[in-house]
Amino acid sequence: MNRVVLFCAAAAAMASLPLLGQEAVVKLTTVAYRVHKQEAMVAFYTEAFGAKFREVQTGTIRSQFGELPGLTLKFVPIRDGVEFKGFPVHQLGFEVADVERVIALAVKHGGRVQDAPTRTGNRSHASVRDPDGNTIELYSGR
Fold this sequence. Notes:
Largest sheet: 4 strands, mixed
Helix content: 25-40%
CATH superfamily: 2,3-Dihydroxybiphenyl 1,2-Dioxygenase, domain 1
Number of helices: 4
Distance between the termini: 26 Å
Structural class: alpha+beta
CATH architecture: Roll
């Protein structure tokens, strides 16, 4: 299980615990990716999910921060091939209006289908790999 999934599970568990006599509030607000194909990643997340990116200087590196409702995606470039070795794989899940559209955009920008779409009642689910190879779960319908 990767670190992002573990963090989210821990955060969800902690959200139900009282904090000094008060109800705890935990909200995931940022996710940082170390990216290899920054242009393709920005294009894919912009077209597929409507993220609005801006360049941010992070130390000596020019990163891209993408805004989604309630979440900032931080794409920090990997500086060289050696740094890419052992690159961690992240996994996010998105509720989208059209799973097939996002699959097509993933492929267009150098990603691929991980798990073809399946339907259970009104709900559709699929998984794709983004341009850097991270798995993204896609859901539609409720």
